[in-house]
Amino acid sequence: MPEKILVMDDEKEICELIRLYLENEGYTVYTAYTGEEALRITEREDLSLAVLDIMVPDMDGFEVCRRIREKHFFPIIMVTAKVEDLDKIRGLTMGADDYITKPFNPLELTARVKTQLRRWTRYNMHSAADSDTIEIRGLVISRSAHACTLNGEKLELTPLEFSILLYLCEHRGSVVSSEQLFEAVWKEKYFNSNNTVMVHIARLREKMHEPERRPKYVRTVWGIGYTVD
User: Fold this and answer.
1) Residue 57: helix, strand or coil by DSSP?
2) What is the DSSP string of 123-140?
């Protein structure tokens, strides 16, 4: 799946220019012209990286960076017209990973994005091998503790519900059929047990306070199965 990148800048021309260059590299790009809009995208989408301009109308990029870092760890590149060292230090202190000043060459920004994503991918691969936790947009699952939290609140899941959610998250990005899910969780042969799976998915969504029509985590792919992306 294409990596998702957020670009925040109050100058639409700059947003569109960056979008063009990054989409040419195969990335999915979301643009925001205010801090609030950027934060909404951050919560709605599973981002791989953010490019944040410091000077936006409602809140500066430092504050956006700080609030993103409360929940997320993907790379952040700060963009600004300022060149003062104190601004760079402040951005890095807030959790930014890199810094670029305007005017910049879009090819340089693209190269920096690629570099940060390579580092992030290698880190994640190493972390996945060493950690027993899965984190997806505020959803945290611990295999060893057999526990799950959503935005800091513990989910009271039955063992079956926990196993369903864990299996779907472990196969994130793929569509899991009802048959595959049933045989993996129940450890039994699938004999038209779609209703069983459907009922447990419904209970799981209810406990996660998922809206029926547009769930944020466990989505139904009609005629095929379920997916977490």
Assistant:
1) coil
2) HHHHHHHH--EEEETTEE
97 near 76, Cβ under 8 Å?
yes
Asked if the domains 4-129 and 133-228 are classified in one and the same CATH topology, the answer is no
Domain positions in the chain are 4-129, 133-228
What are the pLDDT digits (tens) for 135-187? 888 899 998 888 899 988 999 988 889 999 999 998 888 888 888 898 888 88
Multiple choice CATH, 133-228, 1.10.10.10, 2.40.30.170, 3.30.470.20, 3.30.1330.50: 1.10.10.10
Rounded to whole angstroms, how far apart are CA atoms 225 and 201?
Answer: 11
Task: Say how many Å lie between the first and final Cα of the chain, rounded.
Answer: 10
Single out the residue of 6, 112, 4, 9 nearest to residue 60, CA to CA.
9
The token pair at 87 is: 């601004």
Lowest mean pLDDT of 7-11, 27-31, 56-60, 167-171, name the range: 56-60
Tell me the one-letter amino acid at 2.
Answer: P
- CB count within 10 Å of CB 116 equals 20
| pLDDT (0 to 100) of residue 192 | 61
Cα diameter, the chain: 67
